[in-house]
Specification:
two-stranded antiparallel sheet, globular, mainly alpha
């Protein structure tokens, strides 16, 4: 048994009461979860808080809240884990930034709290990452600024759908469930965001 089937078997064991399986499941999604965190951790915290820090705290939070997942039979494991990570990011932002925390778009979490959306800066950084040689540093910085400004002009929901589908590689069904919108709306927003992204890249 491989891939998704193996993960589903682990989830069944977790729901059956084997809490020790959580560590193995967490490892399966560690890389995907790190991408989610990198997109949402405020860049002002660079050097103070790392993605590894958030991952470690997320695992401890998941251990405390695993009963919540077990009781919610409709929630896919990764989406639940992602929401736990999102709440940890919010807590870190509040702790370190307080009133200076940026007013990003929001997602509703399992507890009715919020987790931050992907920032324009984080998305732009990933798009501009291929310009990385020392001689191109100035070009890269200029491109990054252009991309960030253009992404900020996008509809916040479209930008979030783009991040979820394109960078976090979630399915359309997962995006719709996470953002509490219809599947058709999630699909239409992704198509629209992709077209806008192409326009942005052609200008940049």
């Amino acid at each position: 048994m491989a891939g998704a089937d193996a993960n589903e078997e682990l989830v069944r064991k977790l729901r059956a009461g084997d809490k020790n399986i959580l560590a193995e499941l967490f490892s399966c999604y560690r890389a995907q979860l790190r991408t989610m965190i990198d997109l949402r951790l405020d860049p002002r915290l660079n050097g103070r808080v790392s993605s590894s820090d958030i991952l470690q705290e997320t695992y401890l939070d998941a251990l405390k809240r695993v009963e919540h997942f077990v009781q919610n039979q409709e929630m896919p494991f990764y989406l639940w884990l992602r929401l736990v990570a999102g709440q940890r990011i919010v807590d870190v932002h509040r702790q370190h930034l307080g009133a200076a925390m940026r007013d990003a778009g929001r997602e509703v979490t399992l507890d009715g709290a919020h987790s931050p959306s992907a920032s324009s800066y984080s998305i732009a950084s990933r798009l501009a990452a291929h310009v990385d040689s020392p001689s191109q540093a100035a070009i890269r910085n200029e491109t990054l600024q252009q991309l960030e400004q253009a992404l900020q002009e996008m509809d916040p929901m479209d930008r979030e759908v783009l991040a979820l589908r394109h960078f976090e590689e979630l399915s359309n069904d997962e995006v719709a469930q996470l953002l509490n919108i219809k599947k058709a709306a999630a699909s239409n927003r992704y198509v629209r965001a992709l077209q806008r992204l192409k326009d942005i890249l052609s200008r940049a």
